[in-house]
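User: I'm writing a tutorial on reading structure tokens. Could you give me a worked example: one chain, its sequence, then its tokens, then a sentence or two explaining what the tokens reveal?
Assistant: Sure. Here is the example chain.
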Amino acid sequence: MELEHCCECDAETGRAGRGEDSLYAGDRGPYCESCWYEVPHKLAEQCDDYEAEITRLEAPLDQAPDYQRVKRAMSIANAEYVGQSWLELWVWAWEETSDA
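And here are its predicted structure tokens:
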């Protein structure tokens, strides 16, 4: 039986595969027990990094003439969806946000 090694620190996990209760986070793993307890903290840090990157990428969009209108139309379409085709609903929401 070949022992697994942690994908983070390369320590032996004490397990021998997914069938023997190895610690995986989705497709990532296996983890040793000490690294396993750090997974939620690392995922939270990644989410913060992604959120900052999204904010950075959205900043120039706020200057685009139709961006706010599209965001408003999308929120209306999402709130009002009750069985219509998504395209029909989006066209309706786009027209509802029209300044004309």
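What the tokens reveal: Residues 64-96 form one domain. The first helix runs from residue 33 to 36.
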